[in-house]
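Example 3.
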Amino acid sequence: MFLVLLFSSSFLCFQNTVTLAQNDSTLQKIQNANYELKQAFITVLEAEAAGANITDLIILLNSAAEALAYAENSYRIGDFNIAAINVDSVISIAHQVTPLAEEAKHNALISNQNTFFLKIFFTFIGIFIFCLVLSLLWRIFKKRYINNMFQTKPEVISQ
Amino acid sequence: MKLKDYKHLFITIGLIGILLLASPIILETVTFPTAEQFPKIFILGPDKTTTNIPFNVIPNTTYSVYLGIGNYLDTSTHYVCCIKVRNQTDPLPTEGTSSSSIVGSICEYHIIVQKGADWTFPLEFSLNELSVSNNQALLQSITIDNIQYNLNKTTQFEQDNNGYYYQILIELWAYYPLSDVLDYQNRYVYFWLNMTLPL
């Protein structure tokens, strides 16, 4: 009888230890998933600031966010297996998003830089042509004005 | 007009022309004041309109609503929706002090919304195991999106409205990853659930 009690109590202790260990491990995984999602989101924000189109990345991030919520909510009710499965999904999507966001940011930066230099180039060309045309017009106008002045006869007003 | 006056006119036209031609570059370097920036949260019925939001509910029956978030901040934002169940006496969030309700959240949802966009997502729920005694109802659990949460929440019989009422309260929080801060946005939505009919 004593042996049975000893065995059952040690089994319960072992079961509790396993549950606690699983609990800690899942919590750690959820924290990791939160960190990964945060890093992926920061990269997406950088891509957005660089002017990249991030619509598709946001859709991907949202599927990760949804899985994270499901993992956290499953963890709350003690469903550690479901939590762990969803956490893996979060990390996988976050790892997928980060390089895509970096690439989008890189492309956007290059595109913005090119657009900016093109704008400067064409602005200077435009200003140069404008100044040239205006100075030509001024010369023509000045010439006509002086010619007109020479051609006008002085009027003598008799008193 | 003298020739000197015409010269001034040409110079003025020239300067205006140069400013107009350089305006695309000037616009890139100048920042204009932006409109008021704010997030919004809204709730829609199962048909994605403001009608048919569940009110008279029966225990163990699934109902659905759509939760929507509009992000009118200057960047895409990571929002967290805290779902709470309250009775008539539990406090609502305080708008004056921008503090959330002290009622504990039963579950949370993460949503990332792009700048200037709205995002809606479905929320299915059912209220389980309701018991009534001495003018007091006890709701033991709630199931949201197929996850059952223990609640054990009581509510008193409301004489004015003649029934037992619970409220689903959803608060909007924003998570700022760079500062690692979760901040209550002073925005919330709620809808009442009348649990009287089946009793």
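Chain B touches chain A at residues 3, 6-7, 10, 13-14, 17-18, 21-22, 24-25, 28, 75-76, 78, 107-115, 119, 121, 144-145, 147-150, 177-178, 180 (CB under 8 Å). The beta strands of chain B are 38-44, 63-72, 77-86, 107-113, 118-133, 136-144, 147-158, 163-176, 181-194.
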